[in-house]
Amino acid sequence: MRDFEDYCWRDLVDDEVRHIYSPYVRNRSVGKRPALLVIHGAIPDAAQRLIDEFRRRKLPVVHSGASVGDEPSCPRPCESAFFSTDLERVLKRVGARSLVVCGAPTSGAVRASAVEGKSFGYKVALAEEAVADETAFLHKMALFDMAHKYADVMSLEELLAQL
Amino acid sequence: MSAGQIEHLWSDVVDAPTRALLARRKVPPFAGSRPAIVAVDLYDLVYDGGPRPVRELIESYPASCGEYAWNALPPTIELYKRARSRGVPIVHVTYDTRAETDPRGIHPTNRQRRQKDLSLYRIKEELAPVEGELVVYKKRASAFFGTPLAAFLNELGADCLMIVGESTSGCVRSSVVEAWSLGYPVAVVAECVYDRHPLTQKTALFDLHLKYATVMTLEQACARL
Question: ipTM above 0.85?
Answer without folding.
Answer: yes
